[in-house]
Automatic annotation (TrEMBL):
InterPro entries: EFTu-like_2 (IPR004161), GTP-eEF1A_C (IPR054696), Transl_B-barrel_sf (IPR009000), Transl_elong_EF1A/Init_IF2_C (IPR009001). The keyword Nucleotide-binding applies. GO terms for molecular function: GTP binding; translation elongation factor activity. Residues 101-201 form the GTP-eEF1A C-terminal domain. This is Elongation factor 1 alpha. Belongs to the TRAFAC class translation factor GTPase superfamily. Classic translation factor GTPase family. EF-Tu/EF-1A subfamily. Residues 22-88 form the Translation elongation factor EFTu-like domain. Keywords: Elongation factor, GTP-binding, Nucleotide-binding, Protein biosynthesis. It holds the Pfam family GTP-eEF1A_C. The lineage of its organism: Eukaryota, Metazoa, Chordata, Craniata, Vertebrata. It comes from Polypterus ornatipinnis (Ornate bichir).
Amino acid sequence: TRPTDKPLRLPLQDVYKIGGIGTVPVGRVETGVLRPGMVVTFAPVNITTEVKSVEMHHEALSEALPGDNVGFNVKNVSVKDIRRGNVCGDSKNDPPQEAAQFVAQVIILNHPGQISAGYSPVIDCHTAHIACKFAELKEKIDRRSGKKLEDNPKSLKSGDAAIVDMVPGKPMCVESFSQYPPLGRFAVRDMRQTVAVGVIKNVEKKAAGAGKVTKSAQKA
């Protein structure tokens, strides 16, 4: 499927408060289409509201497509409610949700020591920058063929590839690489460098409680 055929995913790069207009999140459409009048949900904060307008380079758009860097005005949402790293999606079509944990295939690039379960580096995934714990090292694999070499390895070192269970330290929204590639790739940052890279195989979504739905979203 082409990126436009998938449900909307737009990771926020910034959120501005613009006098006379209100709250304007900014980011790049990764998949799907963003249109004025759409009711969108922001994850992991679980806020649902209506998009009043969409613009790019100070011109109003009737739709924003993958690759477009846009600002969009949302109703009844404070600039304090949403932030960089949140993900915007269509409330009626596979809305984004907080990830309770995720399984990833990682390749250790350059780490001076051994990485074992409990390691909690910062993960850069789309615009999110959040510490995640390597909760369980499930298997060590051959980085070329993907064949399993060892179950439950005690530790990993530079050059190793592995399947790991990861748990975000703070609320985070990520997706599997197969469904939403730009939200399913990440870099592992530690000691001011990239120590590993990974792709997300599957995500266990957190059961969403009742989120905040603005008045305009209820009407739309």
